[in-house]
Amino acid sequence: MQSKSVLLVEDEKILRENIAEFLEVKGYEVVQCQNGNEALVQLLERDFDIIVSDIVMSDLTGTQLLEKIRTMKVNKEAPFIFISAKTDPKDIRESMNIGADDYLPKPFLFHDLERSIQKRLERFAEVKSTSQSEDGMYRKVNELSPAEVNALSLLNTLTKTQKIVFEKISKGISSNEIAEQLDISVRTVLNHRHNIAKKLQLQGTYSTMRLGLKLKSNTNS
Questions:
Q1: Which domains does the chain have, with CATH numbers?
Q2: pLDDT tens across 57-91, in order?
Q3: How much is the pTM?
Q4: Euclidean distance between CA atoms 86 and 130, whole angstroms
Q5: Contact at 8 Å (CB) between 199 and 169?
């Protein structure tokens, strides 16, 4: 099996080299960058399976790097993990809201980072599978209300993580079960559900689940 590639962006040299050595022992191919601008050069030259980045860096912050990546033609869908000494819940929430897939406060165990990488790669594979089936899943809309038809046209505004949460909602999976399956907190799942409903312009506690179940029913009929 081909090694999964990791772009590691960290300005602290010793920490960066230690993380890289650990991941390489675990079978990953690691490309190291000491700042965001170096990372952008690498991202334009090749594809990466996952990106791990610090936030506080001198030339380009991790959040700025992520925002640039999400507008690129290549690597924009790659899972992204923040590692940072910033532990304020507000900082973590803002990082997740701009499209990060996970956030590990420093100091952290390298095994926890590896576990997060594995989980994000599994989720990304599931997202790709979901995307490939979207055309069939959302084809029939004759039983949808006008608001739900409008929501259907806005599905492409969801992030990849929101898409996978919506897919699980469509299967009738509870927030607790989604949190367990995706290895995230229930609070994060609820935040995703709120943001999904907001993006789809749906009102009501169960509106997102109702739309998802209708679409799933249409696909299976």
A1: 5-120 (3.40.50.2300), 138-220 (1.10.10.10)
A2: 988 999 999 999 988 888 888 899 999 988 888 87
A3: 0.65
A4: 33
A5: no
